[in-house]
Amino acid sequence: MSNRHNARKAAVQALYQWDLTAQAADQIQTQFEKIHDMQNVDKKYLREITDKVPTNVVELDAAISLHLDRDFEKLDPVERAILRLGAYELSYRADVPTKVVLNEMVEIAKVFGADHSYKFINGVMDKMAAVLRKA
Q1: What pLDDT sits at residue 41?
Q2: How far apart are CA 41 and CA 24, in angstroms?
Q3: Are 64 and 129 within 8 A, CB to CB?
Q4: Could you tell me the residue ranges of all domains in the chain?
Q5: Which of 3, 21, 67, 73 could connect to 42 by a Cys-Cys bridge, CB 3.0–4.6 Å?
Q6: Cα 123 from Cα 5, distance rounded (Å)
Q7: Which residues of the chain are modeled with pLDDT < 50?
């Protein structure tokens, strides 16, 4: 696994915690780095995600909500974290290829999500990519 993949997995866990506890992102970041093995993690990328997703959460949630058949708040918190990360990368990280973003979110959903949530994540991510990366 790449250091960036591991950063994404860690970021989903941190974003999940942030969503459920409403703790400040920097507190979660510090706590997370103390508790978890960060040896093969791109820490700079993890910090970027855990800083920028909460900062842009209203915009990211709106972009995601356009492609849902249910209320965003009714999504599983793990799915919310994965979709927020994917929406962030599609919106703000043009250096990360669309195919990589989609594949990473599906793979993370297979690890952390419910049995078939990766299919849901794939569908929503594909729709978001068509809009956010249409150029």
Answers
A1: 82
A2: 21
A3: no
A4: 3-132
A5: 3
A6: 21
A7: none
| Predicted pLDDT of residue 1 | 60
Quick one: pLDDT at residue 104?
A: 96
Give the CA distances from residue 87 to residues 33, 34, 35, 68, 104, in Å, rounded to whole numbers and listed in that order. 24, 27, 27, 13, 12
Nearest to 7 by CA among 106, 104, 97: 104
Sequence-distant (≥ 6) Cβ neighbours of residue 122 within 8 angstroms: 102, 105, 106, 109
This model's pTM is above 0.85: yes
Helices and strands per DSSP (H, E), number in the chain? 7, 0
Q: What is the DSSP letter of 73?
A: G
Q: Both tokens of residue 28?
A: 């979660």
The listed CATH number (3.20.20.60, 3.40.250.10, 1.10.940.10, 3.40.50.720) that belongs to domain 3-132: 1.10.940.10
